[in-house]
Specification:
Blueprint: H1 13-27, E1 38-42, E2 56-66, E3 90-101, H2 114-137, E4 145-159, E5 162-173
Parallel strand pairs: 1-2
Antiparallel strand pairs: 2-3, 3-5, 4-5
Helix pairs in contact: 1-2
């Protein structure tokens, strides 16, 4: 799916989030649960899971903070005075995940079968494995990405007929936000 071209002033987190969204979308094309109908950079702390039965994938910007290379992925504060560090290294923490339909009680009131439950778990495990591979094998090759750290994978739901998973990722970039525009 072609994404609209946007001009965003955030040169630290936004480009990394968009690139990870592209990598996640490519990784899920042949997923066990099928390619998600929606794959987007989404706003907010929590993801609105609106289209899980068609497959939904997301990348969200969790936080952005200045960092020293030896301290990554730990954050630090930066003084904003004349002697300030220009913030050439930034860590961008992202969440990348998927949601699928959860097996539910059928019209006759029967609970999901073991086969249905295991298929659902397998689809989410397949998604998670594909996302991890994209993060570990591809994200480190993105221009201006210095280092990649992968964190925990957490389950989402089941809730409202949806179930999912999300992997936390931190990326250290070498972007200076105070570039001299006269140069």
């Amino acid at each position: 799916m072609t994404q609209p071209a946007l001009t965003v002033a955030d040169e630290v987190a936004w480009p990394v989030a968009v690139k990870l969204r592209e990598l996640v979308g490519d990784a899920l094309v042949d997923a066990l649960g099928g390619a998600p109908a929606v794959c987007a950079v989404v706003p907010g702390r929590d993801v609105a899971i609106d289209s899980c039965c068609d497959g939904q994938a997301w990348v969200r910007i969790v936080r952005t903070y200045p960092v020293l290379p030896g301290e990554f992925p730990g954050g630090r504060g930066t003084p904003l005075d004349d002697g300030a560090d220009p913030g050439a290294f930034w860590a961008v923490e992202l969440g990348a995940g998927t949601a699928r339909c959860a097996p539910t009680i059928d019209d006759a009131g029967n609970p999901p079968t073991a086969v249905e439950l295991e298929r659902s778990a397998a689809e989410l495990a397949d998604d998670a494995g594909r996302i991890r591979r994209a993060v570990l094998c591809e994200l480190q090759n993105v221009e201006r990405v210095e280092s990649v750290w992968i964190g925990e994978q957490s389950s989402v739901g089941p809730s409202g007929g949806c179930v999912g998973q999300e992997v936390l990722v931190a990326v250290m970039t070498n972007i200076c936000v105070c570039v001299d525009e006269e140069a």
